[in-house]
Amino acid sequence: MLAPGDRLGPYEITAKLGEGGMGEVYQARETRLNRDVAIKVLPPLFAEDPERLARFEREAQLLAQLHHPNIASIFGLEESSGIRALVMELVEGDDLSALIARGRLPLAEALPIARQIAEALEAAHEQGIVHRDLKPANIKVRPDGTVKVLDFGLAKAMETTGLSAADPANSPTLTARATQLGVILGTAAYMSPEQARGKPVDKRADIWAFGCVLFEMLAGRGAFAGETVSDTLAAVLKSEPDWTALPEATPASLRNLLRRCLDRDPKQRLRDIGEARVAVSRIEAGALDPAIELKWAGESGSQSAAPANERVSRGLSERLAWLLCCVFAVGGLALAIWWRTSKPAEQTMYFSAPFAFAARDIAVAPNGHTVAVVGYRESARKNVIWLYEVGSPESRSLADTEGASFPFWSPDGRFLAFFADGKLKKMEVAGGPVQTLCDAPSGRGGTWNRDGVIVFAPSGLLLSGLYRISASGGTPTRISTPDASRGENTHRWPMFLPDGRHYLYLAANVTGGSDPDGIFMGLLDSNEKRFVVKTSTNAAYAAPGYLLFYRDRTLFGQRFDLNTFELTGEPMAILTEIQYLPRIARTVFAVSDNGLLFAQKSSEASLSRLTWFDRKGNEVGVVGTPDLYSNVVLARNGESVAVDKTDQGSQNTDVWTYDLQRDRMKRLTFDPAIDAMPVWSPDGARLLFSSSRQHVFDLYMKNSDGAQEEQLIVHSGTDDFPNDWSRDGRYVLYMQGRDVWWDLWYVSVPELKSSLFLKTPATIRNGQFSPDGKWVAYASNETGKWEIYVTSFPQARGKWQVSIGGGEQPRWAGDGGEIFFLSPEGKIMAAPVKTGASFDAGAPVALFQANAREIIANSEQAMYDVDRSGQRFLINTQVKKGETQPLSVVLNWDAGLKR
Fold first, then answer.
1. How far apart are CA 561 and CA 546, in angstroms?
2. How far apart are CA 507 and CA 565, in angstroms?
3. Which of 6, 94, 95, 133 is catalytic?
4. Is the bond leading into 366 cis (omega within 30 degrees of zero)?
């Protein structure tokens, strides 16, 4: 027991604030910085256990990294005179339990508090930290309305090691005088069912507790209550909340949110607290009818101090999120549904919905009103899949879809398939784990029929063709091969027709050939192939008999006969200036069978700039002007940069060099094919690059001053991309396509003899020589996600994993003492390494968050490089986008074809 006037190191105790199972809490004055703090003194039994104390210190270090305006900060650990204490931010104001004790909160007060709680939980969950003891007593509301969540993660920090969380004898201890301090996992009325049973918990336990707190604010009483702890636990495990306790005017969307948070089955529960934050923000921003607000105020018996216009202003000042913007689209689409059902289908209607990012791909479910949109999530630094229902306010992101691309639906709408981590995956939309079906290193679209057959393009490799696989997984079987005799080098973007046997697909020369690209029709279990229409990108079928295709910067619709598989009548222009991605031959649109069309308008979202950063992430310079860069490689002498750059408005890509001393850019290649992925020779006199001028990607070499014609050095009949050139100039490391996978090869210089270096039952890429040439770092997805490995060279003996939790694009420091790589979240990571007779790697650490350009499903490309000192990084940095990216929504797009 401490008393006012006692000292704990530099802290002078001024008052006791309270006590609980996790220790006594005091207010203190820090004499060095002249500020008030909160001191939580650890219980003696805990502080005297070295094992527990060591664990607590490790966890406290992690918790101290949480910096968020709605989370009370941890300042440090203090020990003095045998007393150990945690020093925390002192938060003025009442805790939420005191506010609720005065009666249920008006909606205008409850919603901002709930939103800020959700924001705090979201920030912690993104760092892998779960609160485990969220309750009103751990939530402070300052006089200015700012919410601070206290005691984040302390339950986890105090856990005892060596005890099974699933052991009934290790069930949660709920008394303040508990002897098993390591298992204080929560408070009975706010525990999730799995937590109450003593089972392992994750962030979904916090989502349950959030629901309990929100319910209590609205109803003025707890969601689960009993006379004793046992009664309360029984209610948590068996009973439903008394939903009638909620005011009658509680919006349906808020009731739905509560039900999803308080679902006893963790698999069915709301999967991400960010979804709750978005839902609450929407209601707070003024989506309710003012009459409901007045009725709410009347029922609560109080006049809200915050009028509706103030809430709207506060809500709109929040950071723009795409799901909030989606509300505008939803409103228009609700009108569209009314029009479709109430008016003759004779007039085409156009809507424009502002989103906070450009949609990377769109897929409409068979029901015609559930839409999957691939979009960039800032917190994940990757694309994820978002779902929303047309005409409904409920929108959500799908968990575990980071890095996803090109989703497509099962015929019954239960499952969504997509490509991520070099795999074809599927997941049940209602909830459940993501299932990996097979390898798909850089998938280019898929389609699913009622017999459980999936047809897909597993790779961007040229000549790889289409494959089929069972929707339950297995070994894929090739069903098409591009016809090189007519200039085809890819088959991609398949789509089943209604009979589930015939399918459409794009057969094209994506490398700039002169032969016409087009949509063809294929047939399962047959070699039948029929030309349908000329186009250079994907097409889509819509009932009762239309084909939509892109040509001359315009999306057209035309009647399509399912008996003859021929187009009839004249094409009709529907939209112009929609997003076209020439490098992958993809146009971003989707169509439903009930007359709705979604399309992403053209944007400059792909522009990037070559930017220098130091090891702390400070911007220290730029190179050139923003453009469509795809690779960035520094010369060994640090005087030049090589990039490949795509002409805006076309698919032509060439290699350019930039003289850093003279601040001058120079084009190196001029072929109309794709010339890309440059690699410098050690002396900077030559450049290797890959070119598609012979219908596949081959390796070429050219003097960097442009004085010599290109020399073909590798032609294997499949795609070859250079990765690195050894410092002694003797070897070039390159990737070679094998069916749908990549292997690592090397070619000796000047003999130009190629040899296989590394082959696995997975995809390998991004190979990089160590400075002494005896080791190679590379990325592989053999575990189901990309990780960084090292093996010896020229014989691949042994394997060491460098990354932990994912990594791509390794780079060696100039002295060979570090390996840098990109984490799945886009952070620049650094791992200390030792080379010699053997190899050893230390734990990777994050240097800073990179904002590299988004490369859609194609991370073979080099998004950054590091100078020889290992102190500066040149990153192909995404140019900041505008506030919104318009999404076009067209109702009755087929009206003109019906006349």
1. 8
2. 16
3. 133
4. no
**C-alpha separations of 46 from 8, 19, 295, 839 in Å:** 18, 15, 51, 41
Q: What are phi and psi of 252, to 5 degrees?
A: -60, -40
The stretch 420-447 carries a mean pLDDT of: 91
**pLDDT of 102-131, one tens digit each?**
888 988 889 999 999 999 999 889 888 888
- Global pTM reads 0.57
Q: Cβ atoms within 10 A of the Cβ of 669, count?
A: 22
Number of helices and strands (H, E) in the chain? 14, 60
Q: Using pLDDT thresholds of 50, 70 and 90, give the confidence band for residue 297.
A: very low
Enclosing H/E stretch for 560: strand 554-561
Measure Cα distances from 836 to 728, 816, 818, 840 in Å.
17, 10, 14, 9
The verdict on domain 1-90 having CATH code 3.40.50.1010 is no
- Exposure b/e, 755-786, CB count within 10 A at least 16 = b: eebbebebbbbbbbbbbeebbbbbbbbbeebb
Three-state SS letters, 468-522:
EEECCCCCCEECCCCCHHHCCCEEEEEEECCCCCEEEEEEECCCCCCCCCEEEEE
Confidence of residue 307 (pLDDT cuts 50, 70, 90): very low
Q: Is 133 a catalytic residue?
A: yes
* Angle between helix 252-261 and 273-282 (nearest 10): 170
Give the separation between CA 92 and CA 732, rounded to whole angstroms: 64
Q: What is the number of other CB atoms lying within 10 angstroms of the CB of residue 517?
A: 18
Is the preceding peptide bond at 393 cis, omega within 30 degrees of 0? no
- C-alpha angle with apex 848: 844 to 851, nearest 5 degrees? 120
What residue spans define the domains of the chain? 1-90, 94-316, 329-603, 608-878
Q: For residue 877, what are the contacts with CB-CB under 8 A and spacing of at least 6?
A: 608, 609, 610, 611, 850, 851, 852, 853
724/867 Cα distance (integer angstroms): 15
| DSSP three-state, residue 458 | coil
CA dihedral 465, 471, 474, 477 (to 10 degrees): -20
From the options 2.120.10.30, 3.90.1640.30, 3.20.20.140, 2.40.50.840, give the CATH code of 608-878: 2.120.10.30
Q: Is 211 within 8 Å of 223 (Cβ atoms)?
A: yes
Reported confidence tier of residue 292, pLDDT bands at 50, 70, 90: very low
Q: Whole-angstrom Cα distance, residue 253 to residue 102?
A: 26
In this structure, CATH architecture of domain 94-316: Orthogonal Bundle (1.10)
Structure tokens at 859: 């991370």
